[in-house]
Write a structure and sequence with these properties.
Blueprint lengths: L1 E5 L5 H11 L4 E5 H6 L3 E2 L3 E7 L10 H6 L1 E2 L3 E8 L6 H11 L6 E6 L9 H23 L12 H18 L5 E3 L9 H5 L5 E4 L2 E4 L8 H5 L5 E3 L17 H5 L2
Parallel strand pairs: 1-2, 1-4, 3-5, 4-6, 6-7
Antiparallel strand pairs: 8-11, 9-10
Helix pairs in contact: 1-5
Length: 255
């Protein structure tokens, strides 16, 4: 048996996890955020993790997941999706798993459209086309149980400066922890609350209320059909939203 735990805001990591799962026998996929709510002893022989890169490392919210994970797999793999540079994401994954006595056997990166620096549709499509053979190769390698952690590395810059500066810019300059809706655009459909992986958004009447467990995934911003969500200093633009075209809204909201 195999299981893949994933975290995804706009669908890239979910799509990658689905592709890998299709190549494995008896494989299921589970949300990391659901495991945080209901942790259990993982009995699967193969355990994988798929998530995006945030500021050149793992999403900080996932620290909760790796702090409580309970597993003793015979084979473990990790895949991170990213807009351009992983920084130290795979190394952090290896370090966090090591603290739980889990050995990382295989680790790879996949370049996919960025949901922070959103490009034009044609650029996103070209990145997705280029990513597919990479995902296919990763899926085949995992199915064969290959050992490869050559991408688990970092330059001194990422450890000492890159990530800390990145988060300073995101939180102090762009204020990405401050999420709110444009009341003139919001129609109270509740999609933002449905796609929020942490349950950070609650609907009161037809108005979304934002609380204090934002994972900075931008799911609310990009899945909103009215483009009514603003994240800090990032303005919503009708032509600047991105969601993975191979992932449906239903897949993002099913829990």
């Amino acid at each position: 048996m195999a299981v893949i735990f994933y975290f995804s805001g706009t669908g890239n990591s979910l799509y990658t996890a689905k592709c890998i799962a299709q190549g494995l026998k008896d494989c299921r996929i589970e949300r990391m955020t659901e495991y945080i709510k209901n942790p259990y002893k993982i009995e699967d022989d193969t355990v994988g993790f798929v998530c995006p890169v945030y500021c050149f490392t793992l999403p900080p919210y996932l620290h909760k997941f790796f702090d409580i994970i309970d597993a003793e797999p015979n084979y473990c793999f990790g895949v991170v999706t990213m807009g351009g540079n992983q920084g130290r994401a795979l190394l952090e994954l290896k370090e966090r798993l090591s603290k739980k006595n889990i050995t990382l056997n295989y680790a790879k990166t996949v370049v996919m459209p960025d949901n922070f620096f959103v490009k034009e549709n044609k650029d996103c499509l070209s990145k997705l086309e280029a990513a597919q053979p990479v995902i296919d190769e990763i899926s085949q390698s995992i199915a064969l149980g290959k050992q490869d952690c050559t991408e688990v590395k970092e330059a001194l810059f990422w450890k000492k400066l890159g990530t800390s500066v990145g988060w300073w810019f995101m939180r102090d300059v762009l204020r990405i922890d401050q999420v709110f809706e444009y009341s003139t655009r919001c129609v109270g459909c509740g999609i933002c609350a449905q796609v929020c992986p942490t349950g950070n958004i609650k609907m009161k009447g037809k108005k979304p209320n934002f609380y204090f467990e934002c994972a900075n995934c931008f799911a609310c911003k990009h899945w909103c059909p009215q483009h009514a969500i603003r994240v800090g200093g990032m303005k919503s633009q009708l032509d600047k939203s991105y969601t993975n075209p191979f992932i449906s809204l239903k897949e993002m909201t099913n829990r």
